[in-house]
Amino acid sequence: MEATPDAEIQVTWEDQQNINAFSRLNAKLEDLQVQYEDKKLEIEYLDDLAMELELADEDEPISYKIGDIFIDLSLEEAQDRLQSEKDRLDYAIDALKNDMDEVETKLAGLKKTLYGKFKTAINLEKD
After folding, report:
1. Are the CB atoms for 100 and 36 separated by under 8 Å?
2. Which tens digit of pLDDT belongs to each residue from 66-97?
3. Domains annotated on the chain, with CATH
């Protein structure tokens, strides 16, 4: 049965649940994308800091911020902590990427289902 623009399409309870699920997943994807970009920016800052530490004098203590305080560390300790932080962020970025891929897969399935029923009567694309 081909839907025409003037034809009334029945929206079942299941259809409404799919539309709601699509909306929630879309919002979740946007949140994950923001977190992903924030983590990538943090990695860039840490990379810049690592380059600055390469120029530092080995005999001078490095002020390293932990929470709200600064402590003095040796250059090697500061570089080790910096690498640990980069590793932690890399892991977080990988986890976020996996979560985004999973949400995108679910969204694609819901799009297929909803467009299959509603054709052009529904718009699921971002503006």
Report:
1. yes
2. 889 999 999 999 999 999 999 999 999 999 99
3. 13-120 (1.10.287.370)
CA distances from 77 to 12, 19, 51, 73 (A): 62, 52, 15, 6
Distance (Å, whole) CA 121 – CA 5: 7
In terms of residues, how long is the chain?
127
With the CA atoms of 119, 120, 124 and 125 taken in that order, what torsion angle do they form, in degrees rounded to the nearest 10? 130
**Nearest-CA neighbor of 73 among 84, 21, 123, 103?**
84
Interval 111-121: pLDDT, tens: 999 999 998 88
Query: Residue 33: which residues within 8 A CB-CB, separation 6 or more?
Result: 100
- 8-30 pLDDT per residue, tens: 788 999 999 999 999 999 999 99
